[in-house]
Amino acid sequence: xxxxxxxxxxxxxxxxxxxxxxxxxxxxxxxxxxxxxxxxxxxxxxxxxxxxxxxxxxxxxxxxxxxxxxxxxxxxxxxxxxxxxxxxxxxxxxxxxxxxxxxxxxxxxxxxxxxxxxxxxxxxxxxxxxxxxxxxxxxxxxxxxxxxxxxxxxxxxxxxxxxxxxxxxxxxxxxxxxxxxxxxxxxxxxxxxxxxxxxxxxxxxxxxxxxxxxxxxxxxxxxxxxxxxxxxxxxxxxxxxxxxxxxxxxxxxxxxxxxxxxxxxxxxxxxxxxxxxxxxxxxxxxxxxxxxxxxxxxxxxxxxxxxxxxxxxxxxxxxxxxxxxxxxxxxxxxxxxxxxxxxxxxxxxxxxxxxxxxxxxxxxxxxxxxxxxxxxxxxxxxxxxxxxxxxxxxxxxxxxxxxxxxxxxxxxxxxxxxxxxxxxxxxxxxxxxxxxxxxxxxxxxxxxxxxxxxxxxxxxxxxxxxxxxxxxxxxxxxxxxxxxxxxxxxxxxxxxxxxxxxxxxxxxxxxxxxxxxxxxxxxxxxxxxxxxxxxxxxxxxxxxxxxxxxxxxxxxxxxxxxxxxxxxxxx
Length: 571
Prior knowledge:
By secondary structure, the chain is an alpha+beta fold. The protein contains eleven helices and 21 strands. α1 (2-20) runs parallel beside α10, α6 (395-421) packs antiparallel against α7 (426-440) and α9 (491-506) packs antiparallel against α10 (513-529).
């Protein structure tokens, strides 16, 4: 079994090495990701895109209704653009933290990058999250659809006019407005106003719905995120992070939804609420639409087209009389998962930084790590300091474990002699071993229980380091310029492998030869896997290993058990 595990690991490592060098995987080649043919390509005619059920300007055919979505929302279907692509414009808007692009077709946000968070491949460019290109589809859309009374209103496929104004946040300026106005569609005019703030990744989006007709209308406002189902570029094969839509409500809290469940129409989340948000989440970054608390909304998840999915909210507007304007404000977030900033934007938004079932432990660990960084101003040394504090906090618990191991090591020669002498009498050997443990006051499991208690804490710390966007492009020392990327020279993984082997050699040899071999194989396999882990995670494990070795060495010496290395015997 161990050789099969080891061999399979080597196969995966070889494939990963091939991919890292720009070649095709030898054993498990990945199929080319499917990209929806309906993803719009700016500047080309006959664009298509995911649209809600409302009819687009000039279109008389309603879109099909997705199963599981309320009939009132009918947020499904794919319709062609009803305006020539040549008339569309793309507006570039810049703040101190956001580089955005808006399309005048629907006033849709179609591109976002972050100057303060550089792309991993091109350090000279900001990381791109929202994008609309031949290979990627990830956009934020909003518009109007008809209510029970029917009608045709402006959607995100309706051509809008950009109101002239400033497009770059100037020095000394705290906010910037970008406004789009639609033509009259079905007796209704829609005005979208994006208000961006200095230093903020969230923006206010006001929708002014103006009844320009002669009769009352009852439209519904939809807010949706449309994304392809591909994993983010460059994601590691050796650890997994969630990519996909999520929803938060006060009643059901944070719920993630896999793209595969949307594909199968097996989404089981709260479909109606008066609070919360809908989001698209990936490693380090997220987008989210939020309505004010108390506003009733329907929540939907749906497949738009091949490898194209949507999550959104629909809220009904009150009946709007002729000549009257109804305004609805929403918030839109597009940015990194910085926990303190997310907490300040909306309740529960910080949960898009997902720690899984260990959130209750991970959040205080992140708080402590952030406080340490406030003093040290280096994330690498902050990791070292945090592990040092944790080891100090668990010192007496570890001391009991290592003391038990030292006792086991002291009686280990007697046990090995007994096993050899009674190897043909297993029952008698077992009884003799139990008698010896009792006489020597040794508990063979005594070294395990104190360590098992600590495992959840260190797994939670693992998720803190893996999930924290602060590690991206954060330097430590010398050759480590990015704690979120693997060590370019593999020095840290080699040191980790050596410390893991040293720690294994200091432990008492298990009486069972198979267990003894397992004690050596598993650390070696995991050490090899860490060659492709982020440097920050490897640094954390190295620090933990070194502190554990030091404590074990001191306790063994105090108990009169001289440190000795139990080297493997595979014969």
